[in-house]
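Sat 14:20. Reprocessing the chain from the morning session after the first attempt stalled halfway. Input below, unchanged.
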Amino acid sequence: MPIVVKPSLERAWPVAADRVSRWLERRERVDGLFEGLPAGLSGPERARCQHLLFGVIRHAGRIESALDRLIAHPPRFITRAVLFLAGFELLEGLGAAADPGLPARIVHHAVDRTKELASPAEAGLVNAVGRKLSEMLSAQAEPGRLASAAVLAEYYSHPEWMVRRWLATFGAEATRRLLVWNQTPHSLFLRWRGAPGAAPEWLKATDWGGFFGAPPGRHSEVEALVREGLAYIQDPGTRFAVELLAPQPGELVLDLCAAPGGKSVLIADSMGTGRLVAFDLPGERLVRLKENLSRIRGVEAVLVPGDIVRGAAGNLEARGFPDAFSAVLIDVPCSNTGVMRHRVDVKWRLLESDLVRHPRQQLALLSAASRLVAPGGRIVYSTCSIDPAENEQVVADFVKHTPAFELEARAVALPWEAGHDGVGAFRLRRTAAAATGPDRRP
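Finished this time. Tokens:
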């Protein structure tokens, strides 16, 4: 049930309205919207602000469709933001059957806020539209089993092209489960890095060894565990790529496209001892990567900036590393279709053409990365996508045109089945008979 009036959290609402207004007007990335939040906001207020903003973006399609039917000429963005927030709170409160007065209180709260954030005249608009919006949203029924892509897309707030693609790929039942999954607030997972069996009791054990669920309201304790190096905020889906890579103690491992560094830390923790080279393009992302590499203990971790496609071997050799490794991980940029539950704005930024462009880029990256694999060595190609075009098809195209490599193992996790982020991971082995001269390119 949404919190409509709670003095300790009231400051979060106008801040959320400002961020929603910016998102509606400029489609800013969510992570950027949280930069520069008012310094005086408490932890619970920041969490409330995030909850409201994420909720609006998650349900934006359904709310916008309803508002378009009610308003001939869209009002100012701040007023639209108030209506979107009210719409989300109305959707959130639909299950609160025991409180029939809740919708009216939500609308009344939105009207009061509009007087502060906009004008009395716009508050009148919010009052009239808000009441009709409440009735319209409460009257909407869940789509039937044979619902069209357009109906599913509107109700579950996804682009229609995306729903059509998923229906063709996964079928009707799985697509609906995926849509429902994406519309549910994500769970926060921690990977325990401390002594075995020493995790706090308030962390919830999962079916995935070493990973725990962090219950709401424990933000300060989670921060403390991360700060002390005892835990790392990480989804269990990340384990597949590292498990397929199977880094060994004392090994020299190359992690390509390493930023922000979550898999780098997991690789190092899995090895215990050895050397890790984290490689990525120069830029702001290296700041976060460097910070995460500093959390590593027992393994020598070195950050090497460079371009995989252009001169990666030269960058590595300049730092005293070989031009070929026995273990390479490349976690490529992708559509993020497997992580839409917590990256709530991805679905509104992604274009259908991206799923043509991404595979071409991914194949080029995998081909370039394969040149850094020693004869007999292995490379793991991974994505946080569930689209076969970015997973199975890229790997099939690579193997077809690169006979020096063969596919050894794969792991594909679909989020509605796995209970965590969706991923694709594939281990390819370079045959020992591959060229061993100065030019090792397949």
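The first helix runs from residue 12 to 26.
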